[in-house]
Amino acid sequence: MTLIQTVREQYEQLPYPPRDPRQELRQLHRPIASELGLANHVIWRGHRRLDESFRALDAGCGTGDNAIFMAAQLQPMGAQVVGIDLSEASLSITRERAAARGLTNITLILGRVEDLPSLGLAPFDYAVSNGVLHHLPSPADGLAAIRDVLKPDGGAHIMVYGQHGRSATYQLQALFRLLAPPALAAAERIRIVRDTLSTLPPTHWRELARNGLPREVLQDADIFDLYLHPADRAYTVPEIHDWLAEAGMSLVRWLLPHLYSPESYSAKLDVSHLSVPEREAAAELLNSRMAKHSFFARADSAETLAPARLDDETAIPTWLLHDANGLIRPQLEVKRELELEIEGIQYRFLLDPFRRAFLKLVDGERPLGAIMAETEARLPKMRPGERMESWYRLYQGLEMFNLLGLFPAR
Length: 410
Fold this sequence. Notes:
- The protein is α/β, with parallel strands linked by helices.
- It has helices at about 5-15, 35-45, 65-75, 90-100, 140-150, 165-180, 185-195, 205-210, 220-225, 235-245, 275-285, 325, 330-335, 355-360, 370-380, 385-400, and strands at about 55-60, 80-85, 105-110, 125-130, 150-160, 250-255, 290-300, 315-320, 335-340, 345-350, 405.
- The termini are far apart.
């Protein structure tokens, strides 16, 4: 059996991530990679129109979290989503989930990511490939295939494993190759993993990495994907830059850029002599727990668009999250701080009177000038220079955490 056949068999038996279509309407999973407002902000600086011509790809869609969320955002404007996966069991779950939500703008293809250019599906504006390329026999071929089906100015979000942050995982994978070899039945291998994890000594790296948090609850599919997967490689920051360069692509931005800034870990470090990729590599080593790397990328030949200036009164402050009304607006009414969780990390953002007044007016329609005029009427004692400086700090703080963008006037 070839490696790809072994991987396909795994996902036919244990579709991933585990999802039950019968419970679909209880929760809409919202992977941040599929927040199309955020993608518009990072890749196109807010210039892209999400209309009926927009096409999105989920490359390695699994049971459909990204495909379903993108389709939910795009169905009102008649735009289409394509998902491809090598597992029919996973695609079947995605179909049932889409049907439960009444989504008719998803096309699902049984196939391999590497074969995308030959399937006649291109071109796409945006592609998501989360946790897929690092499981391919040749991640380079998978990345090249995604590049080849994007429009010339298209972009992608990629997530791959991080080498340093998965050290404990790779120790355990090596252990389970000894204790639970592939010759055993899948159910027996999973039982061995569960029994072993329940008795790890407190000094094991996996236990230390929990940092006092309770152990995560793992379903069978989670255990197999994490500890028994037959194809699993991870990347360091320098390797990601090299990988993209070999594909003729460039990193546009890390999903959480502050994690890749050495200053986030120590103000005493002198990194002025380092290049940007070297600074990012230093931050990875300082962090030591980056178990994955999530980033936006595009072809080297794609035009770089200028962002709107922060003093452009015609530009439009825009929430980058699809459900800002549900996630953010209720907090503006009653809380002293915005409290959000992004990629498993908790963030708090103090709401002073200016920030609260300003953010209540953000609706994706009002231009900056109108919002600033309204905040002046509500806070008349605030000096113009102070008000503008408060806006700069507000924007920089929320943009860094993927909450607020500034789009050009339409």
